[in-house]
């Protein structure tokens, strides 16, 4: 992505984010506002995964695990031990980042499907811990009585108040991602996602950048987990199992891997499509699968590819190599 592209994305994001502020006033009921809150939380989750996959070139099937670590650590500290939700959230983010570093150091030496399977195994282990540590997590019944956040003496328990708080946190995360991609590290990440060998030959510390990116995106997922648990005041193990990680990877691809606007559309699909498919009870998974196949077949760049001008979409298609004429066909 060129510098002009980053400038356009910054301006477009600033305008779009300003418009989002009036969403609670336009929403017809609190349920729609609540969906908007979940869209913001999932935007952090999917934008961080898109940063890891689309720009870092690393396929991770453990993103739901870090999402769950953020939710459970902050929730347990505040619900079971009376720790302030703010301190609990800070501890959750730091612990999730430390765990990501411990997991990333050995697993990021792997590549391709080996890396995916290693991260999937970690997610499975974390899911089991959420169920088996009943005294802390509540086991299969979930963690209850998680307190809401308070800011300057005002409770953020209401949908509208929490929407504005989540809007602020999500905006900071997206700006952080934009600044990262426009930095030296961002350019190095795009280089190693294309070819690790070529990037390393140019002096890019590939392994160090991969670990740093893995830790950063895990911390972002933990931020989303903290917002989630202190909004609904509950956490259930099913929300953070390995199937959730698989679904996140699928939805990121559906939105457009390696594109700035892809996670925005991916979060919209992730939150809105299940609500739309409630009328087709028993066929939700089938319809979701069909829609995914249709999008990936006809729009290889994902839904975000539809936002680009037609000329840009045509120019981005891979060109077929020109046929080399035979010796007998060449002119003397």
Summarize the structure.
It contains 15 helices and 2 strands. With 332 residues, it is mostly helical.
Element order, helices and strands? Answer: HHHHHHHEEHHHHHHHH
Q: What share of residues are in beta strands? A: under 5%
Distinct helical segment count: 15
Which regions are unreliable across 5 or more consecutive residues at pLDDT < 50?
311-316
Tally of domains: 1
Q: Give the averaged pLDDT, no decimals.
A: 87
Radius of gyration: 21 Å
CA distance, first residue to last residue: 44 Å
User: Count of DSSP E strands?
Assistant: 2
Could you give a short account of the major beta sheet? 2 strands, antiparallel
Apparent shape: globular
For the biggest β-sheet, the strand order reads 1-2
* Helix-strand makeup class: mainly alpha
Helix content: 55-70%
Question: How would you describe the overall organization of this protein?
Answer:
By secondary structure, the protein is mostly helical. The protein has one domain. The chain is 70% helix and 1% strand. The protein contains 15 helices and two strands. A two-stranded antiparallel ribbon has the order 1-2. Helix 3 runs antiparallel to helix 11 and helix 4 runs parallel beside helix 6. The longest helix is centred in the middle third of the chain and has 27 residues.
